[in-house]
Amino acid sequence: MSDLPRRAVTRSAKLATLPLGFAGRAALGLGKRIGGKPAETVALEIQQRTADQIFKVLGELKGGAMKLGQALSIFEAGLPAEIVGPYRATLTRLQEAAPPMPATTVHRVLAEQLGDDWRENFISFDDRPTAAASIGQVHRAVWHDGRDVAVKIQYPGAGKALLGDFAQLARLGKMFGVLLPGLDIKAVLAELRERVAEELDYFREAEAQHAFAREFMDDPDFHVPDVIAANEMVLVTEWMDGTPLSRVITGGTKDQRDRMGLLFVRFLFCSPARVGMLHADPHPGNFRMLDNGKLGILDFGAVNRLPEGYPKAFGQLTRIFNQGDMETVVTGLRQEGFIRPGIEVDHDALRAFLAPYVEPTAVEEFTFSREWLQAQVSSVTDLRPTNVVRQLNLPTSYVLIHRVHAAGVGVLCQLNATARFRDEAIRWVPGFADDPDDEPLPIG
């Protein structure tokens, strides 16, 4: 990743292949129609090849393209496994194999950010990174007062490469229009670009992490390491030991997996109410099971600022869905911008698609599993124009909320967690509890 600036031309070239490939497929389709092939068959072929190329190129890139791929994960459920399977595999490999910066580069960044005497801040500093991500890597060190610390260092050139990806992706509107006709891709890209710009700001990340650490100080369920020092490209926080959630998934007991699953949901639901922010990068690498049974949370670069908590309509529509009133649900989704004007959706298909996000709140206790999720997804997987997933939009105010919930369901299924998740929604999500004094959903 340290060679991001040198690879900028290559990255742009890969993204440029997308509209060129689309133009070629469109011309090929016109030729087939002239030759007598049914228009619907040609359209499906173009959509299939377009989807294949989009996910292939997104999977080969990190940065902005990877962020877009993550944000569009909701739409993966509406595409055949042979298209998105290789994309997900490539994305996982890239996330797990980010090449570390050489020690000389690390030292140069520390000198630029902390001064030539940067070593005086530390009793010791380990040149080997303990973790790597899309825009930076983490080193373990001992602060000058004896505290164990994590030192997060941003890759030189990461910001320019990330934002450059979005400039390229903004040119692909027509392609996404073919694949996802209900999606306002320009608005989604603009929102993601703004959020990524925030991720690059370590001062802003430090502010968010400190707010979480202060709110959850001495909390019986959660621990957040506090911030010690911050600069534009360097963030120093308290070190936190613990078992990564990925290891709890593979080797934890049933009781441990159930408890971590419950606390994971409680943290995501309660944070907007308690902190006014939602942790927006909930993959297993950012969570730890501590020896005292608490859930430890790391990495606050991506947060969704929700000073009023979750949107009330979110809780209300979830409750109404559970009551079976799909007419009101569809009307509410239109008001919130999930269904754009002129788009009609099949209510039964929409119910099947939303079930994985809502069903766990409909019963007193629920078990998440890979088999359950696969069964849900299989009911909405195809490329027909009537596929409800392809008709939906992702409003900008819900881009990060969706990212959290989609990723969160995946983590819970990996944990195979059983718990009273409905209780957490009742306690923390505005509008979910069936309160007779509650204002009705403003629809009509």
Q: Determine the strand fraction and express it as a percent band.
A: 5-15%
Query: Averaging pLDDT over every residue, what do you get?
Result: 78
Going across the major beta sheet, what is the strand order? 1-2-3-6-5
* Helix content bin: 40-55%
| Annotation, overall tally of beta strands | 13
The rounded distance between the terminal residues' Cα atoms is 51 Å
Task: Describe the main β-sheet briefly.
Answer: 5 strands, antiparallel
Q: What's the helix count?
A: 19
Describe the structure.
The protein is of the alpha+beta class and 444 residues long. It has a domain at 8-97 and 167-196. It is built from 19 helices and 13 strands. Helix 3 packs across helix 9, helix 12 (254-274) runs antiparallel to helix 18 (399-415) and helix 13 (312-322) runs antiparallel to helix 14. 42% of the residues are buried. Residues 1-9, 14-37, 74-79 and 90-97 have low confidence and may be disordered.
Question: Which key phrases capture this entry?
Answer:
alpha+beta; 12% strand; 444 residues; 13 strands; 4-stranded mixed sheet; 5-stranded antiparallel sheet; disordered N terminus; globular
Topology:
Layout: H1 8-34, H2 39-60, H3 63-71, H4 73-76, H5 81-96, H6 103-114, E1 122-132, E2 136-143, E3 148-154, H7 158-169, H8 173-179, H9 185-199, H10 202-215, E4 222-223, E5 227-230, E6 234-238, E7 243-244, H11 245-251, H12 254-274, E8 277-279, E9 287-289, E10 295-297, E11 303-305, H13 312-322, H14 326-336, H15 347-358, E12 366-367, H16 370-378, H17 388-391, H18 399-415, E13 418-419, H19 421-428
Parallel strand pairs: 4-10
Antiparallel strand pairs: 1-2, 2-3, 3-6, 5-6, 7-9, 8-11, 9-10, 12-13
